[in-house]
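can u do me a favor
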């Protein structure tokens, strides 16, 4: 992988796509690889993960193959587009803890928050490919 970081995002999530569009506009040096987990043919098992893994929390992969998730993905993405000073603030003890808690709450509730629950059920959508 020639990029600094790869982000695995849910292309069916309106809030997620807003963030991805922002990152794509700012990624003028091509440091980010964008992988849509909702795209036809995306196979989670080819990455050694399940569809549920990718849907539960944002996932990322560094150039050396190291997997990251949650707030750390955003830190790496923002660093890649030149927002290092903002990232430094997110590592401060109180700020880091608050961001981690906030992201965990968002990840748990994002389907409901983005209007993707049906009736009284709010479950992760099934994989749309032939992954095992």
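np, heres the sequence
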């Amino acid at each position: 992988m020639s990029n600094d970081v790869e982000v695995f995002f849910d292309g069916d999530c309106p809030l997620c796509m807003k963030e991805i569009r922002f990152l794509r506009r700012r990624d003028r040096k091509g440091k980010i690889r964008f992988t849509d987990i909702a795209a036809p043919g995306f196979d989670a098992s080819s990455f050694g993960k399940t569809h549920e893994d990718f849907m539960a929390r944002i996932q990322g992969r560094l150039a050396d193959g190291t997997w990251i998730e949650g707030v750390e993905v955003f830190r790496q993405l923002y660093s890649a587009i030149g927002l290092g000073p903002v990232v430094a603030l997110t590592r401060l003890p109180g700020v880091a803890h608050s961001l981690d808690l906030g992201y965990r709450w968002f990840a748990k509730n994002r389907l409901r928050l983005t209007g993707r629950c049906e009736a009284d059920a709010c479950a992760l959508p099934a994989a749309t490919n032939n992954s095992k």
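The first strand starts at residue 5 and ends at 9. hope that helps!!
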